[in-house]
Amino acid sequence: MNSQKSNVNVNGRDYRWPDSPRVVVCIDGSEPDYIEQAVAAGVMPWMKKVVEQQGSDLRANCVVPSFTNPNNISIVTGVPPVIHGICGNFYYDKANDREVMMNEPELLRTPTIFKAFQDAGAKVAVVTAKDKLRRLLGNELRFGEGGAICFSSEKSDQVSFAENGIDNVLDMVDMEVPSVYSAELSEFIFAAGVKLMETVRPDLMYLSTTDYIQHKFAPGSDGANSFYAMMDKYWAQLDALGAVIALTADHGMNAKHDAAGDPNIIYLQDEMDRLMSPGAARVILPITDPYVVHHGALGSYATVYLPENADIAELISRLSAIDGIEAVYTNQQGCERFELAQDRMGDLILVSSKHVVIGTTASRHDLSGLDVPLRSHGGVTEQQVPLIVSQPVVDLAQAQQLHNYDIFNLALNHVAN
After folding, report:
1. Does domain 265-376 have CATH number 3.30.1360.110?
2. pTM for this entry
3. Fold of 3-253+378-413
């Protein structure tokens, strides 16, 4: 190891240079129970060995809103959204009066751990399921011969050295482009990760899945256990190749339906129109992304923009009384509570209870794609996630509240080099 590369500083935290490859995995939608039940069912032999013998099995909090973009970006920057600025999958750009996806790299307010390590001379590889994340994760990386590698399984047939740092991914992985609504979209990531470890051997690798399976299958079900058995097989291969593997999730997942299987939905725009005049308030659902078949753009978190003359105290009182609303915060209260950027949240922040989701109006949500009872996320009840490292974690403060965005810190600073 080059002694000049012993420390890399990014976003106020020092990271040690690894003496072996570090693979960080974000298992989208993976509450701890998925792994626990799969291990108990005997379908994850590698994981059983890690949690019972060779590694560290911890728990952490994800950031709220417990959605994909803010959590993935928190993980890869090592800091919460109040610093990096990505507070949802979707937000209202009030200055320009437009609702936009939070996929554009210019929305990021901090560099990633990947960029800092590449600048220090590291080999970096990032593989994600959906292309919506790829540009954010690859922000400011240098591509081309000898540069970083960053691509999505969704667009794996469209890669180039100039854009992704790699070519002919389908030939490398020996798989066809998976459907975006499939378990194979995530399997492709791990198959690619193993091939990259065998050939390029990155110093840092980040693998981020989709939560398609978790939206459809509860922990311990055959569908879930089959998916976790698949991942276990690839993690064992990466372990055998000499990588330290660190696993976490961007959020958990809960059933959001009643005993009959019908979704439990609070249509918040309808409620605001009733409490005020129609259209006076604007409800934004930060879960919104292009892939709504499995969740119908319904999650347990919302933010509301109000006119200047709104009686905020009265609205909080009225909204808090709605069955299924767990908490209502002012902008300042909510952003302090969840470490969010105030300029990218509305005047009110609402979180629903464990089995309830928030929508806008009934006419705006197409639920025809739901072929199983609704499972979703977004609130505090989906905040606990696994944090598992394939080697023992050392020198960690006992009382420390861990977050999923501490995972690179653990993998680089708290695994014995």
Report:
1. yes
2. 0.95
3. Alkaline Phosphatase, subunit A (3.40.720)
